[in-house]
Give the backbone structure.
Amino acid sequence: MGALAAACMLLIGPAVPGGDLVARPLPADAARGVVPNRVMTWNLCNPCGAGNADRAREIATYAPQVVGLQEACVGDVERIRDHLRRHYGLAYHVAYGPVLHHRGRCGGAPWNPGGYGQAVLSAAPITDRVSAEYPDGGSEDRGYLAVTTTVDGRTVRVFTTHLAQRRQEAVRAEQAAVLAAEIARHDRAVVLGDFNAVPGAPELAPMWAVASDADARCRPSSVVGCAPTTDWLSRFDYVFLRGVTAIGRRVLPTPHSDHDLLYADLELSR
């Protein structure tokens, strides 16, 4: 009997904290299904050792229509998606935007290392995927992923990105300019990501020129409404909007990353 159990463990893996076979019960105030006008951004933190079951539970608690992920490994996102469907009944389409293929980041076989970068989960189908690397990534390759999908019953272009690490202001300025030029091509866009810069940082000027923060109080000239989104109490994560109105937003602390979750409820139907 013990040998049979061991064989099963080899085939399906352990049902332990962090394992994908463990269903984490949701809190009593969790969303009762996908919220059709909600978008979320989350830097998963890699490597941080968080389990995909815990990550899936966090997403399922708020059940956004669209989630933009950064520092995401393809294999982890696949397991998060499967866990959301299997244990919480939330079915998401996925688009990937890897900028690195690195075993140290994402594991995988030597001849097929895991993809690392951005990803989008969407409850509605995804079309017109574009994954691009910035001309200069800084100390690590960086890029953006863009897709077309549906939020609040309307078609919208969604971007997710991760700009260069701190103390690389000039590189981030170039990256923000590239991204802003792409955003400006669309009348309606939602931009999710970790920009590694506070609202008043000069390198974010191209973004503020084409979009606004989901929180109208959060502006480059006034950080009063810009709630911090990182463990070091900086505002680095944003939901930028172009031609879209936000009717609610929240920063959601989590023990599973050094970045908080940030979501916004949008109004596109009018």
Observations:
- The radius of gyration is 18 Å.
- The first strand starts at residue 35 and ends at 43.
- DSSP finds six helices and 14 strands in the chain.
- Helices lie at 2-12, 52-62, 74-88, 103-106, 169-183, 205-210.
